[in-house]
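Subject: D-alanyl-D-alanine carboxypeptidase-like core domain-containing protein

B.,
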Amino acid sequence: MNRMRMFLIAMSGLFLTIGMITVFLFQTQLKEKETDIPTFYQDVVEIENPASFRALVNKNYRLPADYEPSDLVLLDVPLYNKDKNNEANYLRKEAARALKNLFEAAYNEKGYELIARSGYRSYDTQVMLYDRYVKEDGVEAADTYSARPGHSEHQTGLTIDITSDSVHGGLTETFGETDEGKWVAENAHRFGFIIRYPENRVDETGYQYEPWHLRYVGTEAATSIYNDQLILEDYVLNVMKQMSVLWD
Ligand SMILES: [Zn+2]
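Prediction pasted inline below.
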């Protein structure tokens, strides 16, 4: 009887220990998961592949200050600001061609008319914009809606803000609720574009939902990102890393 009691005590002690270890490990895992999201603008890496279609530019990866794409071309789609000297009306050649195909498909398949509003933005323009926002609102507020110089995807020449008459040419969240916006979200990948800042990943991208901000990454990457509901960070830092082609 005494032995039986001893055995039971030993067993419950063992189970208690296993239970505690499990809880401890689970908590550690949770903590590790929380720290997955980097602190924005800390330990910033200057990227080595600025001309890659899959270049990762965000609040922790920046473009070299002197990076200027060599193949910018004037967009051949309806423009919000029709000034041909405005750099915002330019994109890299392949992205410009893909955008034309996207806009034509929207019109041919659905009768939707899309408008290009803001494409390429040089480092110097971003310096000017960011400085102005900081003067007006302070660094903390400016960081929530404007990228620091070198950290704007628009400097890649692969990014375009688009809109439509149904939102009066605005860059607004309601674009995502329009027929045009919904069609773009479901079809952009066919032409190599992704919605770069989706609604459900704000903490990781560091940007509010921007249904108007499209990034060209090529059809293969865009389709994978669309099908698996990824963000570019997932694709470059996980998928591409596994394929060992991080800096292609
Ligand atoms: Zn944008």
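The pocket of zinc ion is lined by residues 154, 159, 161, 213 (CB under 6 Å).

T.
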